[in-house]
Amino acid sequence: MATVIQIKRSTGVSAPTTSNLAEGELAYVQDRSNSGAGAKLYIESVDSDNSTALIHAIGGKYYTDILAGSTATPADFKVGNGSSTGGSLKLMEDTDNGSHFVGLKAPNSVGSSVTFTLPGADGSANQVLGTDGSGTLSFLSTTSTLAGATDSDISSASAGHILVHDGSDSFDNVAVSGDATLASSGALTISAGAVDFAMLAAGAVVLESEGIGSNDNDTTIPTSAAVKDYVDTNVTAQDLDLAGDSGTGAVDLDSQSLTIAGTANEIETSMSGQTLTVGLPNNVTVGGNLTVSGNMVTDDITTATLTTSGNLTVTGNLSVNGTTTTVNSTTVSIDDPVFEIGDDSSDDNLDRGIKFKYNDSGAKLGFFGMDDSTGKFVALKAATDSSSVFSGTAMPAVFGALEVSSVAMSGSISNYAGSAPTDGQVLIGDTSGGVFDAATLTAGEGIDITNGAGAITIAGEDATTSNKGVASFASANFTVSSGAVSITAIDGGTF
After folding, report:
1. Strand, helix or coil at 377?
2. What values do phi and psi take at 225, rounded to 5?
3. How far apart are CA 9 and CA 6, in angstroms?
4. What is the pTM (predicted TM-score) of this model?
5. Closest CA to 370 of 355, 386, 387
6. 20 near 7, Cβ under 8 Å?
7. I need a labelling partner for 256 at 20 to 30 A (CA). Which of 35, 47, 246, 426 fits?
């Protein structure tokens, strides 16, 4: 049988009070004497102070009747409450014709509230709605032509006419006259030959015979012949003066070329079109010393002795064929992901790893790497190096994390994370850290735990009104089957 859930209800029309309901509890006033005309659904909530109780009307027959048009609508009917879009009202067409609509929509943003009052009667044909500036609308007559305006006088309008105010009381349509014409597209055309030097003031143009050089001012313009004469004269008269670290020279701009010559094995030049390229040859000869203040990058260096006080960058391979390589730097940085040592050409029975020096009340050696005799990784302190075969005392190690395929223990775990174990303590998985942590089981609500030496006892508590635990269920209100509990009925009561 399905569970029956009944909310709190009354037969009248009065809304419940906060004393009738708890937060989140529903109640329905049925208005039985009026066939449910005033029936409403309520829920109790809280105010913004998170403490003051409020009763909210959230539905019921009263509101569905309003939407269905069976009762009078409220004085103000609000449509829309979106965060970014104004409300809209859609009046749908007959469903036999489709799903189109006529819509009325408010702007997404309104500076202040406005109410439009419609006229009480229909207007005449071709009238439009106009406002009195206070939101009251009425039908107004309009004029369909510019001729109806009081400040214009249009007569026999033609293409290219413009409106020009007559200086008295109206705008008149006139054609553009003189040496310019105006097309209906708006293009203004000036007649050929309409503008010549004769229209310019005397002395406004510098002629070839007058010359530009004698007319240095901002009030005249030169003819093309005057400009050419001036340029030709001045280019011919000018030279390009040059000076080097030693010596000087000059190039006649209209008859001579400037030559930039290189020196064999030192500087080379090449010219292509308008581009001059100056650079070093592939083989450069330096007669004296070469000093490099920054980095020197090269493919090959052949020299008896190479000494640098700055940085030396080798972009190719570095091969050292001597007996001993000594590096006296403070920090050695190697980008290679694998550091390769040893020689596999023969079985030399030598250990492989890193030897390091330290001082512990005296100079000592340390070693970590592969013990060739056992094939195992070792870490030794106070070690002895016998021609790359090491012996010594195994040193303790501290790891943040250790992953092994198998573990062989010769003893027991007497310490974990720096502490001895306690009664009932177990190792338990920690997924966030990816490790096992030492933990002691702690009793929760309704559970008793007794931790002993090598033993843990877990027992359930009987449930009470103040304590969770093991409980039985009254058959009058609950049914229990295979551990599943079902409620037979929930009745919110009346108010």
Report:
1. strand
2. -65, -40
3. 9
4. 0.30
5. 355
6. no
7. 246
The stretch 251-272 carries a mean pLDDT of 83
Is the predicted pLDDT of residue 47 greater than 80, yes or no? yes
DSSP H or E run through 66: helix 61-68
CB atoms within 10 A of CB 29: 23
Contacts of 174 (CB under 8 A, 6+ apart): 161, 162, 164
Pairing, β 152-153 against β 171-175: parallel
Q: How many CB atoms lie within 10 A of CB 153?
A: 14
According to the model, what pLDDT value does residue 146 have?
57
Q: Is 477 left (phi over 0), alpha (psi -120 to 50) or beta?
A: alpha
Q: In this model, does residue 144 exceed pLDDT 60?
A: no
pLDDT digits (tens, 9 = 90+) for 431-489: 887 788 888 888 888 898 888 888 889 888 888 888 888 888 877 678 888 888 888 76
**Average pLDDT across the chain, whole number:** 84
Domain residue extents for the chain: 4-68, 352-394, 425-460
For residue 203 the two structure tokens come to 């002395």
Residue 54: partners with Cβ closer than 8 Å, 6 or more residues away: 18, 44, 45, 46, 47
Residue with tokens 């030897």: 355
Alpha carbons 113 and 472: distance in angstroms, whole number: 63
Q: Which long-range contacts (CB under 8 A, 24 or more apart) does 164-172 make?
A: none
Dihedral angle at the C-alpha atoms of 259, 260, 264, 265, nearest 10 degrees?
A: -160
Region 340-361 average pLDDT: 92
CB 25 within 8 A of CB 2: no
Whether the per-residue pLDDT at 102 is higher than 60: the answer is yes
Sign of the alpha-carbon dihedral angle for 28, 33, 36, 38: negative
Instruction: Mark residue 186 as left, alpha or beta (left: phi above 0; alpha: psi -120 to 50; beta: remaining).
Output: left
**Among residues 153, 150, 178, which one has the least CA distance to residue 163?**
153
Structure-block tokens of residue 228: 């050419």
Residue in the structure block whose two tokens are 């308008």: 274
Q: Are 164 and 150 in contact (CB under 8 A)?
A: no
Inter-residue contact 366 to 356 (CB < 8 Å): yes
Contact in structure between 344 and 379 (CB atoms under 8 Å): no
Residue 310 structure tokens: 């700055």
- Residue 10 contacts residue 29 (beta carbons within 8 Å): yes
- Residue 160 identity (one-letter amino acid): G
Q: Is residue 206 classed exposed, middle or buried when 0-12, 13-18 and 19+ CB atoms within 10 A define those classes?
A: buried
Separation of alpha carbons 338 and 334, rounded Å:
9
